[in-house]
Amino acid sequence: MDNPLARLAPQLFGEFPKPFVKLIDSISIGPDQEKDEIKSLIWKAYEFGHRQHEGQNRRSGEAYFTHCVAVAQTLASWKMDTTTIIAGLLHDTIEDTQVSAQELRQEFGDDLANLVEGVTKIGGIKFSSRKEKQAGNFMKMLLSVAQDLRVIIIKFADRLHNMETIKHMTKIKQHRIAVETRDVYVPLAHRLGMSSVKAQLEDLVFRVLNPSGYKELDSKIKSSKKQRDKFIKTIIDPVKKELKSYEIIPHVYGRSKSYSSIYGKMVTRDKSFDEIYDLYAIRIVVDKIEQCYLALGIVHNLYTPVQERFKDFIAMPKSNGYQSVHTTILGEKGQLVEIQIRTSEMEETAEIGVAAHWVYKDGKSSGIDQNVKWLRELLDVLQNETADPMEFMELLKIDLYNEEIFVFTPAGDLIQLPVGATPVDFAFQVHTQVGMHCMGAKINHSVVPLNTKLKNGDMVEIITSKKQMPSYGWQKFIITTKARNQVNRYLKKIQDDESIKLGGEMLEKTLRRMKLFKDIDEFRESFAKFGYSDSGALLKAIGSGMITVREIFRKLRPQEEEIDEKTEEEESTKFFDFARSKTKGIILDGIDNLMVNFGKCCNPIPGDELIGFITR
């Protein structure tokens, strides 16, 4: 029996536990929210979680609930809403305690219970590096996101703390969790624009999977810290001074890049630590967009910019919402220094991505965040019943890891596509129907083949025709998720319709020969006996050669003999038919069981070479 006084003690005597006080202090209170009301809500959840996890310890020997508090603390630092922070405190209650989802609903409401259930479901997905498993799991994970994006944000906070405290686990478990983090959570954080989460996770993974490389790099970075800080200061000071003359007080700071990105550059460029110049990144944070461009002008005036390394993501934001101006300059001794200029709002979005612009209205979650177009398109693929896990994983790889290019419509609208995209990908990005009826394309006013790869800054015009529909050839060069999904869906429907039509014809012809045409309805309606959902599915199976009419006859009427009336013409080719039947059709490149029609004029026997053609 729990002590009811325990709940009241802090309110009566003002003695709250230190972790709770720290958590409350880091919560962002909205203008229409009461601090005392939020405090009592969080305390109710804190006390509830503490009581449920009592007696449970982590591998490190610490009380288990410290992990839940750390997750809530991270969510508070990301400025998440109160419900999400409470879900962080209670995210393991369904999985690790006796509490049921129903109890959580009664105590804290539906919204909170749904979040905790979502996190529990993701926790139940066992990751395997085998590709099929990985693809299937990723699917489930993203489907749970479809209900509420906050589920993933809580999972990121949970994963961050688990990776920070991973050293207490067995080596095998450490390796498995690190690989899962690298293959699933890092790319997802990147795509959701959570760059600080991505960088932290990458470094934690690097520390587990390559401890010696991490240790070596860590000591080099620490030993060069003084020198680095001095160098960054010499670059920053003149910029600050110049900005002050325009009455702009920027927040300017320098940092070294993440360990994993420095190590990655050392490996890919085959260079030593001392040869990697762009170790430093300087960030200038100002109040307004126009100040970003003023700061850029000042930087370019003071230092020599590297022309090909200038990117304006304010005018052309990335698909995950990231905005900033990037420029690389040459320092006094020829070192390359990357400078990122952005507003404080952009800074928040850059660090925590979707978490920064979480829309939370009327106490209801807004589902998929409208800012993450990529995620909405991916969910469209997931909800398509024919989604194949392996194909999905391929699409995901293309979507997650590809860099982006920007191309324009004739009206001057900006369309974002992955590198390697073609006019057909562009057409689908503009509108599904434009893609479906795409007949030709012009790039910068010149007619080009549909498989031409687009380049940054191209102006693309699509020529459409109502008669034009996707063809099988498109599958070889289209790369965006949306285009592949729509084309595959259309081609599969065409194939299915043709198989159903062919199956109907084959059923009719065979039953006529067997003098059973009057029973055609009985054959059509026997689909359930063969494990098909309807007569269309049965006809499709006949048309695609998965089942024959004679097999259906033998199952429906096992007692009866087959009657097969033959014409004189058929009698004369009896030997050839027998020979053909023994070959089980034609073998083409080692594939047998093909649907084959012989020409009326030729009668090959086994061993003869054939010439054939493929019909649609």
Descriptive report:
With 616 residues, this protein is of the alpha+beta class. The chain has five domains: 4-207, Hypothetical protein af1432 (Orthogonal Bundle), CATH 1.10.3210.10; 220-355, Beta Polymerase, domain 2; 402-478, Beta-grasp domain (Ubiquitin-like (UB roll), Roll), CATH 3.10.20.30; 489-565, no CATH class; 569-616, no CATH class. It contains 27 helices and 13 strands. It has helices at residues 4-13, 18-25, 35-52, 65-77, 82-89, 93-96, 101-108, 110-124, 131-147, 150-164, 171-191, 195-209, 211-223, 225-244, 259-268, 289-302, 344-352, 373-382, 389-401, 423-430, 432-436, 481-513, 520-524, 535-543, 549-556, 568-572, 574-582; strands at residues 251-256, 280-286, 304-305, 311-312, 325-330, 336-343, 360-361, 364-365, 404-408, 414-418, 438-443, 446-448, 460-464. The strands form four sheets. Strands 1, 2, 3, 4, 5 and 6 form a six-stranded mixed sheet that branches. Strands 12-11-13 form a three-stranded antiparallel sheet. A two-stranded antiparallel ribbon has the order 7-8. A hairpin with a 5-residue loop joins strand 9 (404-408) and strand 10. The longest helix is centred in the last third of the chain and has 33 residues, at 481-513. The radius of gyration is 32 Å and the shape is globular.
Total of helices:
27
CATH top level assignment of the largest domain: Mainly Alpha
Q: The CATH topology of the largest domain, please? A: Hypothetical protein af1432
Determine the mean pLDDT.
79
* Category by helix and strand content: alpha+beta
Q: What's the CATH H-level superfamily name of the largest domain?
A: Hypothetical protein af1432
- Give the total of beta strands: 13
User: Roughly how many Å is the radius of gyration?
Assistant: 32 Å
Percent of residues in helices comes to 40-55%
